[in-house]
Design a protein that fits this description.
The chain has helices at residues 4-30, 46-75, 81-111, 132-137. With 139 residues, the protein is mainly alpha-helical.
Length: 139
């Protein structure tokens, strides 16, 4: 009989590979694959076009797992709650990291620039922290 740790080592990668395969097929056949850029409009590039849905999938899975593990710690296993809460920390870390990458790729998609392109003042809209008018309005 196989140990639970060994079984988990096979099941988790298989479920992750299946999720990414289903996402890729849904993007491909659903029209989410990269399209040719329209003449005169900036394109964020292939990394953003394919990376944003993948990072959103990771973000949603980590969010659901974090909340689910914490709920399980409170409702299902209150006696071993501390160990389960520690396990939720890894999911929460993945949730935070994927949120940061999602923010960067969403900005890349919104501006139509590749993620590696530096945000020069001539190409990026001014933010409230860099606008002179906003800085002057505060006493």
């Amino acid at each position: 009989m196989t140990s639970p740790q060994r079984r988990r080592g096979v099941v988790v990668p298989a479920v992750a590979a299946t999720a990414f395969a289903v996402l890729a097929l849904a993007l491909w056949f659903g029209g989410g694959r990269p399209q040719p850029a329209i003449q005169g409009l900036p394109s964020p590039g292939t990394l953003t076009t394919w990376g944003l849905p993948v990072v959103r999938l990771v973000h949603d899975v980590c969010a659901a797992a974090t909340v689910g593990v914490l709920l399980a710690a409170v409702v299902l296993a209150p006696a071993s709650g501390r160990a389960v809460v520690r396990a939720a920390g890894a999911w929460a870390l993945g949730w935070a990291a994927s949120a940061a990458v999602t923010e960067a790729l969403t900005l890349s998609d919104f501006l139509g620039l590749p993620p590696a392109a530096r945000c020069a003042p001539a190409r990026c809209p001014p933010s409230s922290s860099t606008s002179r008018r906003v800085r002057r309005s505060w006493p």
